[in-house]
Structure formats: structure tokens, C-alpha cells
Amino acid sequence: MQFQIDTPEKIGMVIRASRKAMDMRQDDAAGSIGVSENFLGKVERGGESVHWGKLFQVMRELGLHVYVDVPDEIAEQARQNLERLIEKTEQQPTA
């Protein structure tokens, strides 16, 4: 099932609904994911200043995936640009 996400509140609602569908309490979910209960609550309320890495960690651990719907008229060029960016990133030496 797909949901259109256009606000932090909506992604928070999807995350909360998914956690509840798994019959997980917020504190238990936070503990198993490795984030604080405070952080998970902030995500579920649609806090606008959450850490991207932790947000994706929460989503990954709950089995949620994000997709971006690129308009057909620019999809091929966007794909090529993305491939170049990924390749460039992979070629950069790590610190």
C-alpha cells in the first residue's frame, strides 16, 4: 500500500500507524531500533527538525520504504543524472 507523503506530519502518521500495526509500544520500538523514545515520539508527531539518518533508521527497522515519483517527462534524464552522482560519490575517498 502506498501513501502520499507531503508533510512531516504525514510521514509521522504512517510510521506510528505501522508501529501500532506491529503491536509495538513506542518505548519497545525505540529500544529495538536503537533510538530514544523521545526521538521516536518526535518523528511520529511530525517534528520538522529530526535527524535524517535516524529517521531512515526508524523506517528501515519498521520495514518502511520511501519512493520518489519522478514525472515521466524527466524520468530518464533524472535517472542518468542520479547514476552519475552515485558513481561520483562512490569514487570519492573516504576520510
UniProtKB/TrEMBL annotation:
Superkingdom field: Bacteria
PROSITE patterns given in the database record: HTH_CROC1 (PS50943)
Segments forming domain HTH cro/C1-type: 15-46
InterPro entries listed in its UniProt record: Cro/C1-type_HTH, Lambda_DNA-bd_dom_sf
Full protein name: Helix-turn-helix domain-containing protein
